[in-house]
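Here comes an entry:

___
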Amino acid sequence: MMTSLFSIFEPSSSFFSLNINWLSTFLGITFIPLLFWAPPSRWVLLWSKIISALHNEFKTILGTSNLGLSLLFISLFSFVLFNNALGLLPYIFTSSSHLVMTLTLALPLWFSFIMFGWLNHTQHMLAHLVPQGTPGILMPFMVLIETISNIIRPGTLAIRLAANMIAGHLLLTLLGSLGPSLPSKLLFFLITTQILLLMLESAVAIIQSYVFAILSTLYASEAN
């Protein structure tokens, strides 16, 4: 049961199918240029408002001198969101449920911010290790705690996104596997529950994309 349950997160064993599954990660990018050529519609205007709101929020956190970073994190949000949303469709590989994918996004960003901060703003980074007002006797412990919290940041980013994607898909798979064994009178309640859970997973896909992007923005602001 456990093997068949978690097999929904496994790419195909053949080399060709394995490449196709991981290439589906970039499927969402192909839709982005269409937004510039598509005629104005409710969805295009909604997406434009979302991007504008994110840009204003990221610009507030990073400062007006780092507009390029704001565009980077908007692209990160869009990429994660498209992959989360595509994973909700039938027979499409959910790449954001794998640590290989999430760590590939989180680790290089975190390492770049840390290296930039320590090389260019060393005193500022040292000041972050000891919060203001910390008693002298607790300073060594605070430095150790802050250092550990900085080191585990890419891991927490990656695990948070992957765990939330895995949990929702497991619930949908478990409910779907109950269908053949249930009497016909209960199928209506099962389908209704699955629809509600799918709506919840759609919200989780959006929220986790935003959380991933906003936390990365906050980590970048500390280095600047």
